[in-house]
Amino acid sequence: MKQYPVNLNLEGKKCIVVGGGRVAQRKVLGLMECGADLVVISPKLSPKLRELSNKKVIQYINRSYRRGDLKRAHLVIASTNIPDVNRQVAREAAELGVLVNVVSAPGISDFTVPGVLRRGEFTITVSTSGKSPALSRRLRVELESAFGEEYEVFTQILGKIRIKFQNISPENRKLVYTQVAMSSIPMLLREKRVKEAEKELKRITGLGFAEIGLSLR
Q: Can you tell me the distance from the alpha carbon of 152 to that of 141, in angstroms, rounded to the nearest whole number?
């Protein structure tokens, strides 16, 4: 079954993770990166999740899942080691119209969670539609070497350029965006040749890093 790829805005939205083990921990940490309002339901927690609960970073409900727990949730992940509980979570989520992922059962999930590579606001996701998380992890590792930390800075540059050139004609704006995006700037940044990267930006846009509001040292 083909899936429709999408990036969700979860900032400040209630997301519930049912389960408290290592798998649940990975899901919680991923949701935290997106600013989700997190609730974890489980009679037990991994040491890391316990630490997050003690610091009030997540809301912890210290018991097993009960019907009614998913009210007002925006997204739910079921990651317990009890298949029947995961199915109950999926059924309630379906009744409420809430997106649900059952980690061990992609077939009853609304979505699967891809492998993710983040460089600031630059994000690459890799998915096998739940068929092989191990392959997704392998590909993510390979992408890490191809897209280094320079892409975090390059994404900032592109964002600044969009703001600076938003009032020019659509044709010229597209030309500038495309030339910057296809330039050698990321390669130069990777090699720490910052002055040359700025020279390339000036060649295309007429603006240096300071002029677009970016400080690079």
A: 17
**What would the pLDDT profile of 164-213 be if each residue is shown by its tens digit?**
999 999 999 999 999 999 999 999 999 999 999 999 999 999 999 999 99
How big is the CA angle at 49 (ends 14 and 101), to the nearest 5 degrees?
Answer: 45
In a domain, 59, yes or no: yes
In which element (H, E) is residue 201 found? helix 194-205
Domain shared by 135 and 159, yes or no: no
Q: Kindly state whether residues 143 and 171 are assigned to the same domain.
A: no
pTM for the whole structure: 0.83
What is the rounded distance in angstroms from the CA atom of residue 86 to the CA atom of residue 51? 25
> Using an 8 Å Cβ cutoff, are 37 and 44 in contact?
no
- Which strand ranges, in their side-by-side order, compose the sheet holding 37-41? 59-61, 37-41, 14-18, 75-78, 99-102
Could you give the CA distance from residue 197 to residue 185 in angstroms, rounded to a whole number? Answer: 5
Residue 138: domain span: 114-147
Q: Which two tokens stand for residue 119?
A: 């460089």
Indicate whether 74 belongs to any domain.
yes
Name residue 60's beta-bridge partners: 40
Query: What's the domain count of the chain?
Result: 3
Each residue's pLDDT tens digit, 119-135: 999 999 998 887 888 89
Q: Can you give the length of the chain in residues?
A: 217
